[in-house]
Amino acid sequence: MLLAADLTRFAVWASVYVMDEPSPKTLGELRNSPYHAIHSGARSVKDEMRRNLQEALRKKEVLFPGIVGYDETVLPQLINGILSKHNMILLGLRGQAKSRILRSLVRFLDQWIPAVAGCEIHDTPYAPICRECRVRLNLAGDELPIRFLHRDERYVEKLATPDVTIADIIGDVDPIRAAKAGLDLSDELTIHYGLLPRANRGIFAINELPDMAGKIQVGLFNILQEGDVQIKGYPVRLPLDIMMVFSANPEDYTARGKIITPLKDRIGSEIRTHYPATLEDGMAITRQEAWLGRGSDVPTNIPVFVAEVVEAVAFAARKDARVDKRSGVSQRLAITCLENTMSNAERRALLKREKTIVPRIGDIYAAIPSLTGKFELEYEGELRGADNVARDLIRVAVGEVFQRYCEGEDYRRIVDWFDLGGNLRIPTEASTSDCLEQFRGIQGLLEKADAVLRAGKHSPEQRVAAAEFVLEGLYAQKKINRNEERVFQAIEKKQRETYFDDLGESRKKWN
């Protein structure tokens, strides 16, 4: 038990070494340092994480920076798992931040811990568990060399694949080491440790657990329940101190049944992740992860409605019956789409010597190559084709976002202009000046564009982007037509709803 004086002395001393490795180099120096009071007792990794989490909760710190949209769902369950000292598994479709969450658990480890220098399994110098370290401690005593492990060195991650072997995870006997040292193969000193023992006194994560062969999963039984491992059938007991965490796709976990039942039974907490529940959460994640700071001499400005449409594409894909729900639609779809949209706008700005890089809706259509590889199609979708499905999703997304912007607005004058024979071609590479010149000829278009941008002074590039958004919105809601050459024109009246028949009625929902 730590005395108050020990804690005070440690707090002052730790503040000096908060970033640098502590100075003790031998066990004797360690015993005379403030770290002795903290690390000489028998405290497990799970106790360590529990204590640090408790302190962070008391201070109301941000526990999982960069994790958005899980505050009311996943994170409370994760916190409960750590407080319960559970091994945990995260179940979720691709692109739901499972790996990021697992790696963020390192934040709850102590910044530095002492270990026997040169030990493959990071043995504690106070009570080593491997034979080699015990021999060294008996011979050297307080002169036993030590080193300090940073928390980042205490996280080991393995992607489960069918070719993973017991030797990779647990370890194997090294005949070359035995021959050089003149030892029997059954001698503990001949062991070559796998990833699991090398994660001793830290966190061991296995991604995509169902892909690991059943016999390898059996090898994890002892470490999860009894806290030890056996290597190559010899009576070698290593009471490892490890926090075990896993990730898996729920379809693999439940439908294909690749995680064997005894292993599932030994995992303390099963936590389900999910995609962003709201457009705002999705946009926050995309903005955080997308590469938008291009470092270009030309400044960038992403209109809010463009970012909303990009995010709405991902939401539309997750609801579309032509997209395989079991495979999921990763958040990477929105991230790469926004990056590609920005790149197309950047290319146009450089070619046309624009003053600002401002993406338009047309740039999202140009970003289709970043979409088609992000979802798997059902049979109906395969018949339609990935490119056509992607175009449909963008159109649906534009329509849903435009629906919010158009509430209370009357677009009769714009539609009438097309009904009277007007048509407009807007290539994706069209310059701002060319677009403005054409838009001025359409009655009411720039006024509606300014309404989309809200109050304030706006650049020509922003006005063009907003005007194109209005046109694309009317096209998405089937009020005007557009072909693949981006020529906007009138739509046949028989295909149009009677939205404008009675403006006094409550707003009707557009298709």
Which residues sit in consecutive blocks of at least 5 with pLDDT less than 50?
A: 1-18, 498-511
Main beta-sheet annotation:
5 strands, parallel
Helix content: 40-55%
CATH homologous superfamily identity of the largest domain: P-loop containing nucleotide triphosphate hydrolases
CATH secondary-structure class of the largest domain: Alpha Beta
What's the number of domains? 2
User: Helical region count?
Assistant: 24
| Secondary-structure-derived class | alpha/beta
The CATH architecture category of the largest domain equals 3-Layer(aba) Sandwich
Report how far apart the termini are: 69 Å
What percentage of amino acids are in beta strands? 5-15%
Task: Write down the overall geometry.
Answer: elongated
| Rg from Cα | 30 Å
As laid out across the biggest beta sheet, the strand order is 4-7-10-1-11
- Please report the total strand number as a whole number: 14
- Let me know the average pLDDT: 86
CATH-defined fold name of the largest domain: Rossmann fold
